[in-house]
Amino acid sequence: MLPSLGYQENTPLKKSEVARLQLAEAISLFTAEKFLPAVTLAGAAEEILGKLLHRKEELSAIKESAKVIESLRRDTGLPLMGGKSEREMIDDWNATRNSLKHLVGSEDEPITVNLCDEAYWMIRRALENAKRLQLPIPNEQEFENWVVININS
């Protein structure tokens, strides 16, 4: 245990509350166009919420997306997502989040990503997971408004 600064008492938090706070802050960062920290915070929330759904034996947004693609592939015979497995699709969808969190390869090796797009989709998945858990996110409408004003116009 780290020594306390004495500024604040310990706070008991449920994991769902941690994820709710992370997602709300990710949305605030996104609407302020601070996309990089929005990706990592939304990614942390999305992962926690997905695991909470898994514990309830329900599918997370990312798992359901992969299953829908696999089903369409079976039904149509089309090589959607290049024939990748569920795990490979999920790894691809989480690649930016993971590359921002972990040092893989050389420190000087740049990554090229669209941070706005990555933050958008991570927040979108986290919001869907929160909805499935009936966990309201207080600033969800601010996110939707930002998208309508800045993207869909």
Provide the descriptors you would attach to this structure in a database record.
153 residues, 0% strand, mainly alpha, 7 helices, single chain, globular, 64% helix
Ordered list of secondary-structure elements with their pairings:
Elements: H1 15-31, H2 35-55, H3 61-76, H4 86-93, H5 95-101, H6 115-132, H7 140-150
What does this structure look like?
It is a single chain. The chain has one domain. The mean pLDDT is 91. It contains seven helices and no strands. Helix 2 (35-55) crosses helix 5 (95-101), helix 2 (35-55) runs parallel beside helix 6 (115-132) and helix 3 crosses helix 4. It has helices at 15-31, 35-55, 61-76, 86-93, 95-101, 115-132, 140-150. By secondary structure, it is mainly alpha-helical.
Short description:
With 153 residues, this protein is mainly alpha-helical. It has helices spanning 15-31, 35-55, 61-76, 86-93, 95-101, 115-132, 140-150.
- Structural class from helices and strands? mainly alpha
Tell me how many strands there are. 0
Rounded to an integer in angstroms, the radius of gyration calculated over CA atoms is 17 Å
Tally of separate domains: 1
**Which blocks of ≥5 consecutive residues have pLDDT under 50?**
none
**Overall pLDDT level:** 91
Element order, helices and strands?
HHHHHHH
Secondary structure: helix percent: 55-70%
Share in β-strands = under 5%
- Morphology call: globular
Distance between the termini: 51 Å
Figure out the total of helices.
7
- Biggest sheet layout: none
